Write the structure tokens for this entry.
Amino acid sequence: MSEARIDQASGLRRMTRPVRVVAVTGGKGGVGKTNISVNLAVALASQGQRVMLLDADLGLANIDVLLGLQPTHNLAHVIKGERSLGEIIVPGPAGIKIVPASSGVQAMARLSPAEHAGLINAFSEVSTTLDVLLIDTAAGISDSVISFTRAAQEVLVVVCDEPASITDAYALIKVLSRDHHLQRFHLLANMSRSIQEGRELYDKLAKVTNQFLDVTLEFLGVVPYDDYLRKAVKKQSAVVDSYPRSKSAMAFMHLAQKAVRWPVRREPGGHLEFFVERLVQYSLCFADGSSRVHAGTNHSKGDLL
């Protein structure tokens, strides 16, 4: 195989390489999902990742509020056919790209499965080169939460030290695993007083999931209770930006380092997924490149050079 063909194949694989898609969810409202999503996005971007953040709380959007943004258009305009997805994307801190949702639009909270599928498919038309798509889901176990979470590759479940949080997180995992065949989840303890407290939360949930569900639950770590995080919220900024040496900011950086090491799915999973066309193109391109290299092994060393 000539060097030109090798370069061409590797170049195509880079152009079509898969996007790591992570849904941040939790079941219960008030556990800090949006703060986790925003700060993880900024932390990933600071490590060289090209990040897009989707506000998937379609009827009660708050990523724009958390970051002090005032987008002119949002996902409601995409649903109405007034704007394309690419036209509503706004820049955020550290170069992240944000897909804003609407707030106070009841119809957006009641989209049909077909409309959810249309939004998910619309991401395949985004020409921006990305490494990571983070999805900040709504609270609860609505059709919206199920659709977006199921279309992701990784599910990050946020819990805090409240009985209702643990109960709702288990209910969410149960529905996603039993009804939608998701089997791998990452657990993040938020607002923890210590690593030990976070570990105990994980142990409580893992004990029940191990007994009743066929899932893998990974303990991702903790985001500590931190006054600097509250100060950043009041400033409408990410704590990773405003107070980079704070305990919570360093926890987000550590979390981002772990997330970057997660393997990226390289083939379609057989159901509705974000950027599924890129997965198809990548798998075909990779197979084509691999077969060409394999065929070339029958040639002499001089031919390969």
Notes: The longest helix spans residues 276-296. Residues 18-56+91-97+131-264 form a domain with the Rossmann fold fold (CATH 3.40.50.300).
